[in-house]
Amino acid sequence: MTATTPDPLSELPGRIMAREMAEQPAVLRRILDEGAPGIRKVAQEIAARRPRFVLLTARGTSDNAALYAKYLLEVRLGLPCGLTSMSTTTAYDARPDLTDVLVVTVSQSGGSPDLVASTRSAREAGAITLAVTNNPDSPLAGVSEYHVDIMAGPEKALPATKTYTASLLALYLFVEGLHGGDGAPAQVLPDLAAQLLARQDEVRALAARYRFAERMVITSRGYGYPTAKEAALKLMETSYIPALAYSGADLLHGPLAMVDNVSPVIAVVTDGKGGEALQPVLDRLRGRGADLVVVGPRSQVEQASAGFVLPTEGVAEEVQPVLEITPLQLLAYEVTIARGQDPDAPRALAKVTETR
Domains in the chain and their CATH numbers? Predict the structure, then answer.
């Protein structure tokens, strides 16, 4: 019998998360090449039913993807859109009239009981229901009238990475399909995502700033705000650093008082109107002497204490969030490794969270 040599990488902390982050360019390409026609067909069928407005239902990472969809629906389509409170139906047994309302439920696993129950209730109340999941055989897909498969493949690390970017792209293509768009601006994403992943050494250098951080603030505006929330979630669930995510506008309404010259602040600056709206916040942060790191265009990074330059030139503002999160996923990974922890297995967490 021939002995096999153990793979030294197979026992390294974070190996699963690292592998799944590395899969993201291929996942994005798969959605564009194989998934886009089906997403467009679903969008066309729903558009023909002329929904009055949209409600988005999700938890955790998927909630941040849903928030991105909210910006897309309101900005690109002018369609009123809200985030649901599932407990109104699951705990309080409320039965609102959802006739001709589009209810989009976003869930990687499609298995959480409250998501399934609230979607079933919405359908019974007259809603047009769409599940966006990584599992077409899930209970959520089963109770929904329509389904979009994000095609990310199995995700085993507890921190969601490839399913998040896959959800963003699938939701973008769906919203584009609602108004007859072809989603062409997304074609640049797979190659640019691969370029970002190749710059992990830059992120590792940034991570050294946060090895002993006791708290962090992450801020953005517009399309970048969901990225700030997702980055904060990744840092909290992997490194256990309390990370507070604020819209730049909300940061000025009080929380700015906690920022001083030793407070780490990460600003996600989308190249476009969202970044322009964030500029006064960046000025205030610099004025307070904050330890400011910018993830965004070169012109903004050069004015900060440090940063990570995103390839935003020629990239539509509405698809930049698919790229913005990549260095921040890497940052969460590198900070966690530097702190001697395993990002694959955050304490007290399970892959499928069964809330009710």
Answer: 11-187 (3.40.50.10490), 199-338 (3.40.50.10490)
Q: What pLDDT is attached to residue 324? A: 98
Q: Is the pTM of this model over 0.85?
A: yes
Cα 230 to chain center, whole Å?
5
Distance (Å, rounded) from C-alpha 70 to C-alpha 4? 51
Q: How many residues does the chain have?
A: 356
Low-confidence stretches of the chain (pLDDT < 50) are: 1-9
Report strand pairing: 243-247 vs 146-149.
unpaired
Distances in whole angstroms, Cα of residue 252 to Cα of each of 67, 148, 178, 225: 21, 38, 35, 15
Cα of first residue to Cα of last residue in the chain, in angstroms, is 52
Q: Which residue has the tokens 């809603």?
A: 127
Q: Which residues of 188-224 are buried (b: 16+ CB within 10 A; e: fewer)?
A: bbbebbbebbeebebbbebbebbeebeebbbbbbbbb
49 three-class SS? coil
Task: Name 63's Cβ contacts closer than 8 Å, sequence gap at least 6.
Answer: 83, 106, 229
- Amino acid identity of residue 177, one-letter, is G
The radius of gyration computed from the CA coordinates of the chain, to the nearest angstrom, equals 20
> Which amino acid, one-letter code, is at 291?
D
pLDDT at 355: 61
Does residue 156 contact residue 146 with C-beta atoms inside 8 Å? no
Structure tokens at 194: 């691969």
Q: 171: closest CA among 26, 36, 30?
A: 36
Q: pLDDT value at position 6?
A: 42
Structural contact between residues 303 and 286, judged by C-beta atoms closer than 8 angstroms: yes
Residues 341, 225, 167, 204, CA torsion sign: negative
Q: Rounded to an integer, what distance in angstroms lies between the CA atom of residue 146 and that of residue 152?
A: 18
pLDDT (tens digit, 9 = 90+) per residue, 33-91?
999 999 999 999 999 999 999 999 999 999 999 999 999 999 999 999 998 887 888 77
Q: pLDDT digit string (tens) for 90-120?
A: 778 888 899 999 999 999 999 989 999 999 9
pLDDT at 8: 43
Compute the Cα dihedral for 22, 28, 33, 35 and give only its sign: positive
Retrieve residue 100's tokens: 């001709």
What's the rounded Cα separation, in Å, for the pair 167 and 99? 26
